[in-house]
Amino acid sequence: MENQNPIEEIREGLKYLWIHRNGNEVHAAVADTIEAKYLKLKPLIVKKIKLADNAFRFLINLPAGLGYAEFKKLEPLFADATGGSVDISKHGKTITMDVMTEELKASYPYSLFDAGQYGGMYLPFPVGMSAKGLIVRDLTEYPHFFLGGETNYGKSNGLHVIANSILLHRPETFVAIVDPKSTEFSYLDGRALVVDEMNKVGVLLMKLNQVMDERKKILKAAHCVKIQKYLEKSYEMPFIVLIIDEWADLPDDVQEHLWRLLRMGRFVGIHIVAATQRPSSKTFEKFGDMKAMFYGRMSFVVADELNSRMILDNDRAAHLPAIKGRAIYKCGLECLEVQMLYLDPEEAEKMLNSQNIAYKVVNHIELDESPKMLPPRQRFALSAGKGRGPKH
Ligand SMILES: Nc1ncnc2c1ncn2[C@@H]1O[C@H](COP(=O)(O)OP(=O)(O)OP(=O)(O)O)[C@@H](O)[C@H]1O
Ligand SMILES: [Mg+2]
What are the FtsK domain coordinates in residue numbering (predicted)? Predict the structure, then answer.
């Protein structure tokens, strides 16, 4: 600053005054945060767009030497300065920063999710409402999804949302639910395979491994490296989703089966969604390795930064407001505050009942019988066109 010439100084001063004029608080907060954080290599705000009364977008150029990943880590700082939710993303060379100053509400109904809009996805489900609007993702892309957080902050509700989104919109999917509380998912009995006796979990996982091996052979014979290629050729193979509500309650001796499914299941359409209060490595010896398999993660309110880091590898969930259903969603570099939609199981049951769907695939796996897991491989006419999703 001392070496600046007077004209530069006046220009800086005018810029400061211009940014700090009335109604420009968000812009000023973003600019001030950049000023405070960077001395020489300063990111440059090239454009500010007002998306709505409480939503702003900034287009930012980063100077050479400052990486996107590094800048994105400052999201919480910008959020503190603007008092809003901040999402930084990258499109080509330009960085986009979305700031929404309106607080997320404490509850959003499940009815906001309209699966019809996401026909291009295999297993769409709403991750939650964010500053950018409703975030919807395809479970098959993760390929496994993890939910953590203190008791009573919304993990099971998250699982209801995921299970019902799948059952309502891809009813041919085989959903198996490990439900240690035995009452949480009983309403889905018959549409999904609900396992509430922990001594049966080992058999379930063993049989899923058998299905996986069987499917691998089928894909190999059809020269397909993964299920998506197989479906594109108009063969039928329903996705399988294993939901585990409270991972810590799993018996110790199922780890090998679980580990194999986590590693290889995705290629044959097996996806795991697991929830737990505290994913400590004491509970699971291999948790560090297993965690890496859950590319999509969500943490509801946690007790402290340590727990947040265990779930998300950052401490953002420790600073969430104590609101049920509020969470940090993380997938790769994407890290957003969301409010998970709320789905009352009674409502879910009504929706399922009102749909006139023939549940043709209910339980491919009988836990008490010898294995007979796979539906026969069938060839379908190609006339339906090249839809991306599995054929109904
Ligand atoms: N997204 C949400 N929006 C509004 N309210 C919610 C939401 N999620 C959960 N709740 C409320 O919080 C209560 C507890 O949620 P939930 O049972 O899902 O917690 P949990 O994390 O599974 O707890 P536990 O670890 O004890 O199983 C719900 O009964 C509901 O009233
Ligand atoms: Mg629960």
Answer: 131-309
